[in-house]
C-alpha cells in the first residue's frame, strides 16, 4: 500500500531541515512509551503554545494580551467545571464548549465584544483537538488521559522518523533495522479471509497471498470504515458497530516555505479570528485556523486546517491553494511584508486511501451505541479442530476426534483501539504491545 514504513509518522526533507506531515510531538513524558523509548537529549521543548501566539481578527487587528488572557481564563473555568458536570451524552464537544463559554461570558459579565468572543470560541474549538464540526462527544472527552509533564516535545532537527529508528533499531541508512527483509512494501491488502477450516488466515494483496496463523489488523479507522469487502466473512456485529460508530477526523497541515522569514525572531505565529463580515469567498480558507512557526525551520510557517473543507484543501489546484494562502496571510498580517512562498506542501491524510482521515475521537454515536476502542480491540476467534505434532503422545489413537478449540485469528491494534491514548503515537505503540502480549499469553496458556 505504501512505499515506506511509518504510516501517519511521515517525516520529509523540506526547506532547511525536516518536517512532519503527520505526528510531530511527543505529548508529555509520564507513562508515555514513546518518551521512554527516546533519548532524553534528542527531544526539545516546543515553545509554540496557545498562550504565546497572536490572536488576530480578519480586519488585521491583534487582540490585546489582556483580552486574550481573559478569554483563556474563561476556557479554563469551563474545563474545570466540565470535570464535575453531568454532561448530556448526546451533546457534541463543540456545542458543549460554545454553550459553556457563552454562559461564562454572561455569568462573569465580562466586558468583551460579544462578536469577538464568538470568533474566539470558533477558532479555539478548531485548535482543541482539531475536531470542531465533528460529533466528538463531550461526555467521553475525559476518556483521553494526557501523559503528564513537559507538554509538547519535538524531535529537534530530526523529525518523528527518529522514533521509527528506535522502534526497529535502525537509522537513516537502514530504515527497517532489525526488520530488514521482513517487511514487504507496496502491498495493498484487498481481502482478509479469516474463517477458514484449517484456522489459518489468508491475506490477499493485488498479486501476492500470505497465509498466517494470526493477523494483527492495524488499518486506520478511516480505512476500516471504507472497507466493506475487506474482510471475508464480514467482521462480527460488535466490531462493525464500533467501526461505524467511532469518529475519525480530518486535519490538514500546510507547510509554507519563504525565501526569507518576514517575521521577528520572537514571533510564534497567529490564530485567525474570522469576522462574519470578512468571510472569504473560498469557504475552505476559513477552515485554516492559524499559521505558526515551526521549530528548527527558520523560514517555514505551518498552517493548520480542520473541518468540513479539509478534503477541498487537499484536492484544490496547487496554484489556487498558494494564492489563497498568500491572500489569507496578507489579510491577517497587515504589519508584515508577506512575500510569495517558494514552496508549499500539504498533508493529504483524508484523501489518501491508506489512511482516509487523521485520527480517531470518541463520538456521540459511539457513546449512544455503547461501543468504542475496547470493542474494536477484541480479538476474533474461530473454532478449529486442535491438531498436534505426530510426536505428541497425548493424542493416542487416530480414531479419536480432535477437540475443538477457539483460536484467536484476528487481533486489532492501532491508535483507534486505545481506550485512553487514542489519536496518538504512544497509543498506537501501546496497542501493538498489548496485542503481542495477547498472542504470547495465548501460546503460554494453550496446548498449541
Ligand atoms: C496531521 C496529524 C498530526 C498528528 N500529530 C501527532 C502528534 O503530534 N503526536 C502524536 O503522538 N500523534 C499524532 N498524530 C497521530 C499519530 O500519527 C497516529 O495516532 C499514529 O501514527 C497511528 O499509528 P497506527 O499504527 O495506528 O496507524 P497508521 O500509522 O495509520 O498505520 C496504518 C498502516 O496501514 C497501512 N494500510 C492501510 N490500508 C492498507 C491496506 N489496504 N493494505 C496494506 N496496508 C494498509 C498504511 O499504509 C499504514 O502504514 C497525528 C496524526 C496526524 C494525521
Question: How would you sum up this structure, described in words?
Answer:
There is one protein chain. Helices cover 28% and strands 20% of the residues. With 448 residues, the protein is α+β, with helices and mostly antiparallel strands. It has a domain at 50-143. The strands form 6 sheets. Strands 5-14-15-16-13-17 form a 6-stranded mixed sheet, with helices on both faces. The structure holds flavin-adenine dinucleotide (FAD). Flavin-adenine dinucleotide binds next to strand 3, strand 13 and helix 12. Residues 1-2, 7-9, 22-25, 27, 187-189, 218-220, 223, 251, 253, 347, 349, 354-355, 358-359, 414-415, 423-426, 428 line the site of flavin-adenine dinucleotide.
Features:
single chain, 448 residues, alpha+beta, six-stranded mixed sheet, four-stranded mixed sheet, 12 helices, 20 strands, 28% helix, globular, binds flavin-adenine dinucleotide, Flavin_monoamine_oxidase
Oligomer: single chain
Strand order of the largest sheet: 5-14-15-16-13-17
CA gyration radius, whole angstroms: 25 Å
Which range does the strand content fall in?
Answer: 15-25%
How confident overall, as mean pLDDT? 93
Structural class: alpha+beta
Distance between the termini: 33 Å
Protein name: Amine oxidase domain-containing protein
Organism: Drosophila navojoa
GO molecular function: polyamine oxidase activity
Domain Amine oxidase: 2-440
Set down the secondary structure blueprint.
Blueprint: E1 11-14, E2 17-20, E3 25-27, H1 33-37, E4 44-45, E5 54-57, H2 65-84, H3 93-107, H4 114-127, E6 152-154, H5 161-168, E7 191-193, E8 201-204, E9 209-212, E10 215-217, H6 221-225, E11 231-232, H7 237-245, E12 247-248, E13 251-257, E14 269-273, E15 288-294, E16 297-306, H8 310-315, H9 318-332, E17 343-346, E18 360-361, H10 364-368, H11 373-376, E19 380-385, E20 404-412, H12 425-445
Parallel strand pairs: 5-14, 7-11, 10-20
Antiparallel strand pairs: 1-2, 3-6, 4-6, 7-8, 8-9, 12-18, 13-16, 13-17, 14-15, 15-16, 19-20
Helix pairs in contact: 2-3, 3-4
Bound molecules: flavin-adenine dinucleotide (FAD).
Flavin-adenine dinucleotide binds at residues 1-2, 7-9, 22-25, 27, 187-189, 218-220, 223, 251, 253, 347, 349, 354-355, 358-359, 414-415, 423-426, 428.
Amino acid at each position: 500500500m505504501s512505499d515506506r514504513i511509518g504510516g501517519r509518522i511521515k517525516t520529509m526533507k523540506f526547506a532547511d531541515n525536516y518536517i512532519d506531515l503527520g505526528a510531530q510531538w511527543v505529548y508529555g513524558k509520564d507513562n508515555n512509551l514513546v518518551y521512554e523509548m527516546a533519548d532524553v537529549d534528542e527531544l526539545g521543548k516546543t515553545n509554540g503554545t496557545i498562550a504565546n501566539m497572536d490572536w488576530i481578527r480578519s480586519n488585521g487587528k491583534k487582540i490585546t494580551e489582556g483580552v486574550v488572557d481573559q478569554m483563556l481564563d474563561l476556557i479554563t473555568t469551563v474545563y474545570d467545571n466540565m470535570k464535575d458536570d453531568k454532561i448530556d451524552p448526546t451533546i457534541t464537544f463543540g456545542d458543549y464548549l460554545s454553550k459553556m463559554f457563552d454562559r461564562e461570558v454572561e455569568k462573569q459579565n465580562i466586558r468583551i465584544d460579544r462578536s469577538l468572543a464568538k470568533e474566539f470560541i470558533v477558532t479555539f474549538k478548531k485548535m482543541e483537538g482539531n475536531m470542531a464540526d465533528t460529533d466528538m462527544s463531550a461526555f467521553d472527552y475525559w476518556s483521553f488521559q494526557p501523559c503528564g509533564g513537559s507538554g509538547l516535545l519535538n524531535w529537534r532537527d530530526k523529525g518523528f522518523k527518529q522514533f521509527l529508528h528506535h522502534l526497529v533499531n535502525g537509522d537513516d541508512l537502514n530504515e527497517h533495522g532489525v526488520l530488514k527483509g521482513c517487511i514487504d512494501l507496496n502491498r495493498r491488502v484487498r481481502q482478509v479471509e479469516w474463517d477458514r477450516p484449517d484456522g489459518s488466515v489468508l491475506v490477499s494483496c493485488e498479486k501476492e497471498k500470505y497465509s498466517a496463523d494470526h493477523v494483527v489488523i492495524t488499518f486506520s479507522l478511516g480505512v476500516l470504515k471504507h472497507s466493506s469487502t475487506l474482510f471475508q466473512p464480514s467482521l462480527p456485529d460488535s466490531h462493525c458497530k464500533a467501526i461505524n460508530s467511532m469518529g475519525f477526523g480530518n486535519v490538514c497541515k500546510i507547510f509554507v516555505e519563504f525565501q526569507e522569514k518576514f517575521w521577528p525572531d520572537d514571533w510564534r505565529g497567529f490564530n485567525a479570528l474570522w469576522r462574519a463580515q470578512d468571510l472569504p469567498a473560498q469557504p475552505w480558507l476559513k477552515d485554516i485556523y492559524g499559521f505558526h512557526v515551526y521549530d528548527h525551520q527558520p523560514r517555514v510557517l505551518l498552517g493548520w486546517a480542520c473541518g468540513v473543507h479539509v478534503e477541498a484543501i487537499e484536492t484544490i489546484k496547487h496554484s489556487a491553494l498558494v494564492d489563497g494562502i498568500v491572500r489569507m496571510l496578507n489579510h491577517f498580517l497587515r504589519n508584515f511584508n508577506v512575500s510569495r512562498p517558494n514552496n508549499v506542501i500539504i498533508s493529504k491524510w483524508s484523501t489518501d486511501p491508506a489512511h482516509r482521515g487523521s485520527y480517531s475521537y470518541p463520538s456521540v454515536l459511539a457513546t449512544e451505541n455503547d461501543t468504542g476502542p475496547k470493542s474494536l480491540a477484541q480479538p476474533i476467534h474461530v473454532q478449529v479442530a486442535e491438531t498436534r505434532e505426530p510426536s505428541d503422545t497425548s493424542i493416542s489413537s487416530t480414531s479419536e476426534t480432535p477437540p475443538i478449540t477457539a483460536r484467536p485469528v484476528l487481533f486489532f491494534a492501532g491508535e483507534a483501539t486505545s481506550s485512553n491514548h487514542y489519536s496518538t503515537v504512544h497509543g498506537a505503540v501501546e496497542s501493538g504491545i498489548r496485542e503481542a502480549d495477547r498472542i504470547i499469553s495465548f501460546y503460554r496458556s494453550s496446548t498449541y
